[in-house]
Amino acid sequence: MSDEHAAQAGPGQEVAPVAHAENPLAPGLPPHRPRRADVDPRAAKRAERQVALLFTLSALCTIGFIVGYVEIPNSEVLNLPLMGAVSASNFTLGVTLGLAIFLIGAGAIHWAKKLMPDVEGVDERHELRSSDETREAVYAQVAEGIADSGFGQRKLIRRTLLGAMALLPLSALVLLRDLGPLPGTELRTTLWAKGVRIVQDPSLQPIRPEDVVFGGLVSGLPATLMAVEDSAGTLNARAKSPVILIRLRPEEIVAEQGKNWDYEGILCYSKICTHVGCPTALYEHQTHHLLCPCHQSTFDLADAGKVVFGPAARAMPQLAITVDADGYLVAQHDFTQPIGPSFWERG
Fold first, then answer.
1. How far apart are CA 220 and CA 243, in angstroms?
2. Which one of 38, 213, 221, 325 has the lowest number of neighbouring Cβ atoms within 10 Å?
3. DSSP per residue, 159-222
């Protein structure tokens, strides 16, 4: 039974509600009761220190985030209960950044609950278009709210809040370091150069013109690929360098991207789609079309690799080829345009 009802006097008797004084500003609610901080200056000062402590802890967590990012190596591992082995760097960054954000929110909530006015107010219904007098009254209420919050008078809270919020964006600024150095010319160049042999993928055997038959397609790589010592460099170079070779009759070649770029009807194109970089190898000999399996971009290899269908916006880059003294297919020079998808600086 609710406390708002009197105890039953006996069986069969009705329960009478206990009378309460009502709040004149909010009918149905009990009268407003002031908080301890409203009547005790020492309690208000204590609450102010608590809010300032939360903001200060937030600032320290942000500093901890930056220190952890700089000092803790990515290879260091922590063994935590229930979580097992986790990256010490990721764990530290997540905890410190999460606490920095949480403590600012907790401090703001504590500030509002303990120190800002909590008296109920009543707003009358009005038309959608407020009168000038109403607008002036709203401006006055906003100014009064700012004054009531104590932001101007409570210097300790103001300074610690501003300090915590000023330091918090540094976390995002530090993370910009992970974007790495600018690519320079890496997006515009590959391992292909004058005289570099084309080898089969994956056998790495040099390719002679007679190895490329009419109607077939041969996947190739630069012979210099394996000479790249750094493993990461090898992966990056391999991602940019794959090519495909097809053979057409001279009268079937409509256009090339450069003069005399084929060798006896053998054409060499990048294998990387110019839409989003998927590898392409679906070739239809009768139409000379190359289809990308990801988004169905279609290129006409007999007509300088032009796009005939799909979302790709640029032709497939062509590699000029010839043969060396030993009769193996080699590149005449590197691609004359960046291979793969678009990027901001491509122009």
1. 5
2. 325
3. HHHHHHHHHTHHHHHHHGGGG-S--TTTTT--S--TTPBEEETTT--B--GGGS-TT-EEEEEE
Examine the domain organization and report whether 169 and 208 are in the same domain.
Answer: no
Written as one string, the DSSP assignment of 255-268 is B-SSTT-SBTTEEE
pLDDT band at residue 9 using 50, 70 and 90 as cut-offs: very low
SS (HEC) of 101-152: HHHHHHHHHHHHHHCCCCCCCCCCCCCCCCCHHHHHHHHHHHHHHHHHHCCC
Residues 148 and 212 placed together within one structural domain of the fold = no
Same domain for 167 and 209, yes or no, is no
- Asked if 81 and 171 sit in the same domain, the reply is yes
Decide if 340 is inside a domain: yes
Whether 104 and 112 have beta carbons less than 8 Å apart is answered as no
- Distance of alpha carbon 16 from the chain centroid: 63
Distance between CA 328 and CA 180 in Å, rounded?
A: 39
Q: pLDDT digit string (tens) for 17-76?
A: 444 455 565 566 677 788 898 889 999 999 999 999 999 999 999 999 999 999 998 888
For the domain that residue 293 is a member of, what is the CATH number? 2.102.10.10
The boundaries of the domain holding residue 73 are 36-120+137-179
> Which amino acid is it at 85?
A
Element (H, E) at 234: helix 231-240
What is the C-alpha to C-alpha distance for residues 134 and 138, in angstroms, rounded to an integer? 6
Q: Are 245 and 323 in contact (CB under 8 A)?
A: no
Coil, strand or helix at 346:
helix
113, part of any domain: yes
Model pLDDT, residue 23: 58
Contact yes or no for 246/217 (Cβ under 8 A): yes
State pLDDT tens for residues 304-347: 999 999 999 899 999 999 999 999 999 999 999 999 998 877 76
Domain match, 143 and 214 both: no
Query: What's the number of CA atoms in the CB half-sphere (13 Å) around residue 77?
Result: 5
